[in-house]
Amino acid sequence: MAGSGCLLYFSILSSLLLFSATITEASQCAISGLPFVRNISELPQDNHGRGGLSHITIAGSALHGMKEVEVWLQTFAPGSRTPIHRHSCEEVFVVLKGTGTLYLASSSHVKYPGTPQEFSIFPNSTFHIPVNDAHQIVNSNEREDLQMLAVISRPPVKVFIYDDWFVPHTAAKLKFPYWDEQCLQSPQKDEL
Ligand SMILES: *[C@@H]1O[C@H](CO)[C@@H](O)[C@H](O)[C@H]1NC(C)=O
Ligand SMILES: *[C@@H]1O[C@H](CO)[C@@H](O)[C@H](O)[C@H]1NC(C)=O
Fold this sequence. Notes:
By secondary structure, this protein is α+β, with helices and mostly antiparallel strands. 16% of the residues lie in helices and 31% in strands. The protein has two helices and eleven strands; from the N terminus they run αβαββββββββββ. The strands form three sheets. Strands 1-2-9-4-7 form a five-stranded antiparallel sheet. A three-stranded antiparallel sheet has the order 3-10-11, with no helix packed on it. A three-stranded antiparallel sheet has the order 6-5-8, with no helix packed on it. It is globular. Bound molecules: 2-acetamido-2-deoxy-beta-D-glucopyranose (2 copies). One 2-acetamido-2-deoxy-beta-D-glucopyranose (NAG) binds next to loops. Pfam families: Auxin_BP. Keywords: Auxin signaling pathway, Disulfide bond, Endoplasmic reticulum, Glycoprotein, Metal-binding, Receptor, Signal, Zinc.
């Protein structure tokens, strides 16, 4: 008797857990809009398959129905980096802590990105990435995380990835969606 009561209790408990897990997943895709105030420490983070990355979509297109801009908080562990990539949207990022290197190739070279310029990333520095310029952010510091707040226009971002700086633009690989694919309803057609 006691045994079956326990089993009943267990199955109620597990269906409650399952129910709340479903709610949690659904509520991450609050496409009806952003809550007015949120605590960043409580937002979900994910590395989206990229080693050493912590990505938080603070305000997103797929996630929250943002139309014009998207805001990310990203932390790069020592030694980690973005791929070499470009996108046809504007990007501004603000460095909250850590140091590193930004590699930036002007899109004026028609065939491939070419040898990039190097810029030091330091705390409180800010950068804007010109539309379609191939770039890479590297945390070259062996001890410290690099953390930044990034803002992009025209979300969701469509990222073209290069294996190196001399891969032709036409051979760069489109990765879309890049983030928040669980909430993406209808992928927009690519415009580049
Ligand atoms: C924000 O969330 C963190 C982690 O849950 C918590 O420690 C902190 O107290 C929260 N801040 C406020 C003002 O509620
Ligand atoms: C960054 O800016 C803030 C605000 O002006 C300042 O308090 C802080 O010391 C700065 N940090 C560095 C490393 O310059």
